[in-house]
Design a protein that fits this description.
This protein is of the alpha+beta class and 88 residues long. It is built from two helices and five strands, in the order αββαβββ. It has a domain at 46-77. The strands form two sheets. Strands 3-5-4 form a three-stranded antiparallel beta sheet, with no helix packed on it. The longest helix is centred in the first third of the chain and has 6 residues, at 8-13. It binds zinc ion. Zinc ion binds at residues 20, 22, 24, 27, 29, 50-51, 54.
Length: 88
């Protein structure tokens, strides 16, 4: 059976840049995430998308590790602004 091909080009180009949300408040490393990846993260308030190897083993538990970013669940809520808007 023939399955319709996914619009591969579209998938690659729909990637957005977000800022790392690791426990280092000064960290502003960009991470590339697609829309579905981004929307899957904030389902829980203590879940964050961070750059690879930015987890703090004492408070973060890595849930998902992708080539571009990792999703962690932290034992404490970050004081970061979660609106994810670009800084002025
Ligand atoms: Zn970071």
């Amino acid at each position: 059976m023939r399955v319709q091909a996914l619009p591969e080009k579209d998938m690659h180009e729909s990637m957005d840049i977000y800022l790392c949300e690791c426990s280092d408040r000064r960290c502003a490393d960009p991470i590339g995430m697609t829309r579905p990846e981004y929307e899957a993260v904030p389902a829980v308030p203590v879940r964050f998308a961070i750059a690879l190897d930015h987890e703090n083993p004492e408070i973060d538990r890595v849930l998902i590790e992708k080539p571009r970013f990792a999703t962690v669940e932290s034992s404490m809520e970050r004081g970061k602004d979660r609106s994810r808007q670009r800084s002025p």
